[in-house]
Amino acid sequence: EVQLLESGGGLVQPGGSLRLSCAASGFTFSGYAMAWVRQAPGKGLEWVSTISDNGGNTYYADSVKGRFTISRDSSRNTLFLQMNSLRDEDTAVYYCANQIATSGRRRLDSWGQGTLVTVSS
Amino acid sequence: DIQMTQSPSSLSASVGDRVTITCRASQGINIYLAWFQQKPGKAPKSLIYAASSLQSGVPSRFSGSGSGTEFTLTISSLQPEDFATYYCQQYNTYPPTFGGGTKVEIK
């Protein structure tokens, strides 16, 4: 059974930093692209970032480009999101998800339970 | 970026009703469209991918159709556990984008 367990969320002041982790189990982590998706309180879903299976390619939403960095450690089956220069509008539940690639496209498959990031002074 | 527009944004229905949700893309996305179900306080769950492929373990009352710019999610006979918010998402091009969601409520 696929399990994705996020951690690292919390309260941080504007301009601060936070590092999210996602521990993966139940599938061959190194064979899957991984993604972060967020959801602001009472709002819809927003894709944040994707990293390829080997970590060689990364993609970011314009809203976080230059401030967030996605990475992975396949020896620990763990996905990370380093978030710097945080803004009020980054307040959200952050989900990690694995992605399945077909025909050169990656679809979101299994999701973690999410971790809440609150940016506030 | 590709804009995804869902309609309606909310609907009220009774157990046993047939429910259809529409998703329109601002440009063609072939069949690279997924549907997700989200219940309050829970993570989204994948229902359908590639417009019409049912995710393993999802009941057959859920079905998807469409290609290009017009897609539909149909629940053939609404069950109590189906009351939730549904999102479409295109994954044809970066950035992947979601529709605004359709909240299915009890009539």
Write structural notes for this entry.
Chain A has about 120 residues and is mainly beta. Chain A has no helices and 11 strands. In chain A, strands 2, 4, 5, 6, 9, 10 and 11 form a 7-stranded mixed β-sheet that branches. Chain A has a 4-stranded antiparallel β-sheet with strand order 1-3-8-7, with no helix packed on it. In chain A, strand 4 and strand 5 form a beta hairpin. Chain A starts with a strand and ends with a strand. In chain B, a hairpin with a 2-residue loop joins strand 7 and strand 8. The termini of chain B are far apart. Chain B has no helices and 11 strands. At the A-B interface, strand 5, strand 9 and strand 10 of A face strand 4, strand 5 and strand 10 of B.
Brief sketch in words of this structure:
Chain A is mainly beta and 121 residues long. Chain A is 0% helix and 56% strand.
Summarize the SSE layout with pairings.
The complex is a heterodimer of chains A (121) and B (107).
Chain A: E1 3-7, E2 10-12, E3 18-25, E4 33-39, E5 45-51, E6 58-60, E7 68-73, E8 78-83, E9 92-102, E10 105-111, E11 115-119
Parallel strand pairs in A: 2-11
Antiparallel strand pairs in A: 1-3, 3-8, 4-5, 4-9, 5-6, 7-8, 9-10, 9-11
Chain B: E1 4-7, E2 10-13, E3 19-25, E4 33-38, E5 45-49, E6 53-54, E7 62-67, E8 70-75, E9 85-90, E10 97-98, E11 102-106
Parallel strand pairs in B: 2-11
Antiparallel strand pairs in B: 1-3, 3-8, 4-5, 4-9, 5-6, 7-8, 9-10, 9-11
Note poorly predicted spans of chain A.
none
Order of helices and strands of chain A: EEEEEEEEEEE
Fraction in helix of chain B = under 10%
Low-confidence stretches of chain B: none
| H/E element order of chain B | EEEEEEEEEEE
Q: How would you sum up the major sheet of chain A?
A: 7 strands, mixed
